[in-house]
User: Fold this.
Amino acid sequence: MSTPTETDAESRARDILGVSRLTNPALSSWLQGLPGVDQVGCEARAASLGTRSVKTTSKEWAIDTAIGMIDLTTLEGADTPGRVSGLCTKALSPDPTDLSTPRPAAVCVYGDMVPVARQTLGDGSGVKVAAVATAFPSGRASLAVKLADTADAVSAGADEIDMVIDRGAFLSGDYRTVFEQIVEVKRVCGGARLKVILETGELVTYDNVRRASYLAMLAGGDFVKTSTGKVQPAATLPVTLVMLEAVRDWRELTGVQVGVKPAGGIRTSKDAITFLVTVNEIAGEDWLDPFWFRFGASSLLNDLLLQRQRMRTGAYSGADYVADDSPSLY
Amino acid sequence: MPTFEYAPAPESRAVVDIASSYGLFINGEFTDSQGGGTFKTISPATEEVLAEVTEASAEDVDRAVAAARTAYTRVWSRMSGADRGKYLFRIARILQERAREFAVLESLDNGKPIKESRDVDVPTAAAHFFYHAGWADKLDYAGLGPDPRPHGVVGQVIPWNFPLLMLAWKIAPALATGNTVVLKPAETTPLTALLFAQVCQQADLPAGVVNIITGAGPTGQALVGHEDVDKVAFTGSTGVGKAIARTIAGTRKKATLELGGKAANIVFDDAPLDQAVEGIVNGIFFNQGHVCCAGSRLLVQESIADQVEARLKRRLETLRVGDPLDKNTDVGAINSRAQLDRITELSEAGEAEGATRWSPECELPSKGFWFRPTVFTGVSQTHRIAQEEIFGPVLSVLTFRTPGEAVAKANNTPYGLSAGIWTEKGSRILWMADQLRAGVVWANTFNKFDPTSPFGGYKESGYGREGGRHGLAAYVTTGDAT
Amino acid sequence: MSTSTSARRAPAAGRVDVRKTYKLYIGGAFPRSESGRSYEVYAAPRGSRGSTPVFLANVAKGSRKDARNAVAAARKAVGGWSGATAYNRGQVLYRIAEVMESRRSTFVEDVRIGEGLTPARAEAVVSAAIDRWVWYAGWADKFAQVTSTVNPVAGPFFNISAPEPTGVVALLAPQESSLLGLVSVVAPAIVTGNTCVVLPSRQRPLPAVDLAEALATSDVPGGVVNIVTCHTAEVAPWLASHRDVNAIDLTGTAGVEDLAWGELELAAAESVTRVLRPAGRGPAAVEEDFTAEPGTARMQAFVETKTVWHPKGL
Assistant:
């Protein structure tokens, strides 16, 4: 890849960095020049957002909004067409007892399951099909394989692609490779929106999370996403906070809005509402929309539905009162 | 799409039982005044009268000091350190058990947000008792000098900004070292101290070891000037601190003074900016800026001044000002009309002197004492708002070009209580920390307190330390003292 | 008053000895008083002779302006001296002991005549004074170690407390113990990095001026110790009320009739100046026994505790 092909993303990146050639040293010094993140202060800020109390009408709104932001996900080796179509049915009708319940934003599956999902969801349901690609979750494959993986999912009807970055390249300081791979995947995506998974649990530091977010946005990612769900810790609140700061500052810098998707580990309504509070206070209400913010989750949906029932009926509900099409094998 | 509004989430008042009137806590019981008057304590958020409180007379002070003296000679100075410690442990536990009650009462009487009284004031107060309890039987190991002995009767006068926490800062070390106490809370915030008196009763603390007398300036003066008081501990304004220093001049009374401040919060261009903005906000808007160590002067490197200002303003737009009992409130009420007047006056002076004033949009309640979070930019070192302690939610922003200039500006004040440094460069933090003439230096953080961490000022911010091993020194005499 | 007889050791036969002019010591220089004044200093009366006091010297009589200049010199020296390494300050203090030892006979004569001591007692006092410098020299790089703490705060923070010099210290040196007492108040003040302005014993100032000459040749930076011989009661109030003085030691008020230490403390209150009171009970001031081992209290009196917090994180 020593002779990078000229792309729009590349020329835009040169503009933003103010360099004539987008070399790895240029990317390095740009990323290392970003303001650092103090771990303790960042986590304290996140914790303080967790103490916000949301009540009554706001809570109803928040629960419905959160449901509408879910990428209902199954990413297991044991996935079958039956399970995937069950999940899609659930997405189409989350709570059969209350048809006013909003639908989640998307279902998220492995690439080979895209045709099943596409078929079950049909067209016009409003529920998108998202596919993980690029040798998910490790990302350890050649670029050619990653591009083929992506092209396969897109041609099968995926509306959105969730790619993983090459964490090895990132951690070894080879930012140019990470950048190029995102650019190439984005090119293959065509009209599909690209979510870039940073796998923050492997990047370890918030400084790295910020740098990886900027790198992904520079390369043209439509979303930055925390995790694959296969590595712990996954979508923590402080990690999401750092990414929300990044997209907020990126829009100020470039005028381009980028979405954020925390994925993995968000299981309760209380958690989801805390994330929405964080979106609201850090990035602002422009991001309080399924187009710009998603939850990568599976069991979260049922907890939100329980809360919804609780608010509708006034009584606490129980797991047997929501249909569960997606019990995890793990 | 509806805006994401947080509905009011008020903490219930029902947990608190406020009496209509309170006597003085002397010798283990609430007693009527001898010749003293009464005054009302109000909720600054609503101006509602909460209770009528006794204004202790000189005779009352006499009685309280005598009770403390008797308790000192007959009981407390003879008790083993281990047993003293057990009483402190008991008090710590009761404070934890009744935490919710204390938090609500503190927010009612003081006007501070419940999230601060709940998460900071009350738990830290309990922690102070817990920490000092363990010292009571270990003073010989504290390295204070040979044969540490208590002074005797300690007169303590505390301010209204952290009523319960300041009480804990004062009483816990005094008792741990074997002294007995007469404490006067501030006249606008007496209620948690009076509730603490009940805690002493519940703990079966021997009568007279802790005496709580309410009142205003004259009561405090009578206490500080009382000839049978061996040591004075004061937290409050530099003006009153100087008056106390004058009062005890020429006597053999010991004193510690924790006075005002005008802290510089210094932000370098390589700072972790998002956390620095949080630190700036926490530094000046925590507790409505009613904090002696508040970061009231923001010194920001010129190269990032615009960016920091923009981020700061954006952040301030999300601050929620209002009902102190609402769990979502970030900034509560100003403690008193007098304080509100002072903040207003100094802010007007800031405008008149040419600084640019800015506040976020926010609705203020119609009753009570309120002041919008306020930022002054274009402030110069000679402006009053850069020199005088405002003790309110008002930030003065100044700029600097080099580390040396930042130090010069930061130190260019008669105060020296605290300072903040924000930079990712370790060697610069250590160099700056050396140069700053301040008793507490927060690097990449601000307004952190802990029972183990000594607190107190340089220069006109006072002398002596509170907290930690150093704080004990103020409450003992040692064999090698001159 | 008689000026007939010098109490000094007799000069070599037939030689007219060269006498010293006793001047102030400010900022490393030896100026006369800006006021042009001086006062006569006499030997301490000895035994039952009851004879005319024996004249020793005309000593510069420092004024409030001299004291002001001394404070300015001391302030200027704070940065360098407090910024010097503790190891370096320790070496400088030790060097003072070396230089005093080499000028031993001068100091012995000073205290023998000035304090009216027997030769043996004078020798002992000078030895103690020299040894006191050595004792404090050793403290320079240990005081912070025994007074610092790492504070285990309940959170992810590194937190340390360490002593720092308070700045400029005014020292009213003891009136009786004119050399050992003087050294015993100066050494603990400067060893931690303070600079000082010293008002030495009014009636026995000669050891102080001789000490100044030792200091000037001992690698002590100019301005670290400033000595203003004067009438204590005249100048002390100006130091007590001086807003650029961080701390004041009132030891030397003991034995000065027209000077109440409480008044000085009152003046010091105006700028929250740290005060080290004289020994004694109630309003009475008593000069302490400087032959005893000093302890750390005098060093403690002139330091501030600085606590520094920093988060611990990745």
